[in-house]
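hey
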């Protein structure tokens, strides 16, 4: 481990300078969800591509209904049905109407749509609440309809191009494709799209003391929470996450596990084994050691001026120079380190411009001053009240306090040269939600 003390900013800058966005690929729409669009997408055809009805009702001419009223309905001759997807549309002439369904094209001659609730539905009775099924319509959808209200031109008609016009920008490069964006691409006829794929992140925890949830704990063992939390955090960041069960404190086994995982990793994240103990297996397995190390391993182990998360490792391994971030093993340390360093790396691999969590300014809501070690940037768990613009600490400063972390939605940042923060003072807050 280098004797140099790295700042948080320098360590992050070093990581982001070494990580490059993944190469673009063409994907089918279902596989493109969560990916980042590489090119601008323009609209090839207007949406909707034709004037269509926004209601179930009757396609009519406006002038025919100018005198319509509750006590003096206008009687129109019904010339047929128009369903969504209909072709060979009838022409609506003076004194005529066509039954029309939602989404169906407006027929020639018609200028508006009268909702069925404004008519008798062709039954000869009072106001209708719904349309009769096509098979039960009077005289096979012919006959007459009484209309009780006048209508304005284009009423209840979705005009051609009212959503987007041909040539409009549908989605800009850099857009993350969520469900609405996938829907828009499908609506304009795009079956595939060019994106940067979601990064494949392998999370591997180390420690002979780790048991898997569901197993019985024996003396001296604890459950492996880090790999579950970090794999979930990787998915939250936009990655495809693979969680590897805990590897014991054996350098040979760890080297073998890492080499196996290189086949499916765009980024490797280890947790534990990076401090100065006699069993810090990650350092032993990955530090340059001739024939003993992982092939083409170039990982630097560092001390950072931060709390929690002082010991860190970063570099690349394997023939593809896969980035590797080695995080400390204490649960809070590993999670804070992930948020500060791994998440931005994942977002960079995705090709996003803004890779950081949002930071806001808030007033400290605490009963006593917060203390912080001189020369270290401290990250305390907190709960943020956006409406009040205040933030309250959650739990203590210990790096093992998993329960407090689970109730936090932000990190309170105390700068390196600040040793005490008074209640009511302004602090930077990194939002985690």
């Amino acid at each position: 481990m280098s004797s140099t003390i790295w700042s948080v900013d320098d360590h992050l800058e070093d990581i982001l300078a070494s990580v490059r966005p993944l190469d673009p690929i063409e994907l089918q729409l279902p596989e493109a969800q969560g990916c980042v669009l590489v090119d601008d997408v323009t609209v090839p055809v207007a949406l909707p591509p034709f004037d269509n009805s926004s209601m179930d009702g009757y396609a009519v001419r406006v002038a025919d209904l100018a005198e319509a009223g509750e006590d003096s309905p206008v009687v129109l001759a019904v010339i047929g049905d128009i369903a969504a997807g209909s072709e060979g549309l009838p022409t609506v002439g003076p004194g005529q109407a066509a039954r029309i369904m939602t989404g169906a094209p407006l027929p020639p001659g018609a200028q508006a749509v009268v909702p069925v609730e404004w008519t008798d539905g062709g039954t000869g009775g009072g106001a209708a609440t719904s349309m009769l099924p096509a098979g039960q319509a009077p005289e096979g959808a012919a006959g007459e309809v009484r209309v009780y209200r006048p209508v304005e031109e284009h009423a209840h008609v979705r005009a051609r191009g009212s959503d987007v016009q041909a040539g409009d920008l549908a989605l800009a490069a850099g857009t993350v494709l969520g469900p609405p964006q996938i829907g828009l691409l499908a609506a304009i006829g795009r079956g595939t799209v060019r994106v940067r794929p979601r990064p494949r992140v392998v999370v591997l925890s180390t420690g002979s003391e780790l048991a898997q949830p569901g197993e019985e704990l024996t003396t001296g063992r604890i459950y492996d929470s880090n790999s579950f939390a970090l794999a979930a955090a990787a998915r939250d960041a936009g990655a495809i996450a693979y969680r590897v069960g805990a590897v014991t404190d054996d350098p040979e086994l760890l080297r073998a596990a890492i080499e196996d995982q290189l086949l499916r990793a765009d980024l490797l994240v280890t947790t534990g084994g990076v401090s100065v103990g006699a069993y810090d297996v990650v350092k032993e397995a990955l530090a340059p050691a001739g024939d003993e190390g992982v092939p083409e391993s170039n990982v630097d182990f560092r001390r950072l001026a931060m709390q929690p998360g002082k010991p860190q490792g970063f570099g690349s391994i394997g023939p593809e120079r896969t980035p590797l971030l080695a995080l400390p093993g204490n649960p809070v340390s590993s999670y804070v380190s992930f948020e500060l360093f791994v998440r931005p790396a994942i977002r960079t691999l995705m090709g996003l411009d803004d890779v950081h969590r949002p930071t806001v300014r808030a007033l400290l809501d605490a009963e006593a001053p917060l203390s912080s070690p001189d020369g270290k940037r401290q990250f305390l768990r907190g709960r943020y009240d956006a409406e009040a613009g205040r933030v309250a600490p959650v739990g203590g400063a210990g790096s093992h306090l998993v329960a407090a972390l689970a109730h936090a939605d932000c990190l309170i940042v105390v700068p390196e040269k600040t040793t005490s923060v008074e209640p009511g003072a302004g602090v930077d807050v990194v939002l985690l939600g």
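The helical segments are 8-18, 29-32, 179-187, 226-237, 251-261, 281-286, 331-350, 402-406. The longest strand covers residues 74-82.
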